[in-house]
From TrEMBL:
Family label: Belongs to the GDT1 family.
Pfam families reported in the protein's UniProt record: GDT1
Chain coiled-coil ranges: none
InterPro entries: GDT1-like
Record protein name field: GDT1 family protein
Organism annotation: Sphingomonas rustica
Its membrane topology: Multi-pass membrane protein
Record carries keyword Transmembrane helix: yes
Cellular localization per UniProt: Membrane
Length: 187
């Protein structure tokens, strides 16, 4: 249970200014079906986060507690560095004629593959609670996907996402420093 809430909070912070959320907003406007688009995005995120949880099942038992903490610190470090980079707009998938569900599911899967969310699911999951980490990251991505789909592209891009990314970067880098120094026994 210890991984559920932190994974949720970290995922929401990481996803707010990322490509998958903007793509969800774009496709919700394009298809005029926000709930279907949000559901398809959630399905794509579920598949990706489930793969991360399965990876945590495989590598978690091989790591010492300090290595697990260092793994989490590295996830926060990369999350913070990623939040400092300007977010680029995703491909609008205008040529995709697969319908609202398939276009959103496949597009979100391809855009979100290897994103911070999976790394956080893996990092929280190596502590021996991979399915709680999966549930937390999935709930976080679901909240952001639903919000993006319901607001649509016009309102989504007007949100202060740059400021949110800056706050996320500071929080993630601070967490990386604290967790990493503890893992390396520097404190």
């Amino acid at each position: 249970m210890e991984a559920l809430v932190p994974a949720f909070i970290v995922t929401v912070l990481a996803q707010l200014g990322e490509k998958p959320a903007l793509l969800t907003a774009i496709l919700a406007d394009r298809f005029n079906q926000p709930l279907r688009v949000a559901l398809a995005a959630i399905v794509a995120h579920a598949g990706l986060n489930a793969m991360a949880a399965m990876g945590a099942i495989l590598i978690g038992p091989t790591l010492s507690p300090n290595a697990q903490a260092l793994f989490l610190a590295i996830a926060f470090l990369f999350g913070g560095l990623g939040a400092l980079l300007p977010a680029r707009a995703p491909d609008r998938l205008d040529g995709w004629r697969l319908g609202a569900m398939a276009t959103t599911a496949l597009g979100t899967f391809s855009v979100a593959l290897g994103s911070q969310t999976q790394f956080f699911a893996l990092a929280f999951g190596v502590f021996g609670l991979p399915w709680f980490a999966f549930a937390g990251t999935l709930a976080g991505t679901a909240c952001v996907a639903i919000a993006a789909a319901l607001t649509g592209e016009t309102l989504w891009v007007r949100m202060p996402l740059r400021a949110l990314r800056a706050v996320s970067a500071v929080l993630f880098l601070g967490a990386a420093a604290v967790i990493g120094s503890g893992a390396l026994r520097l404190t």
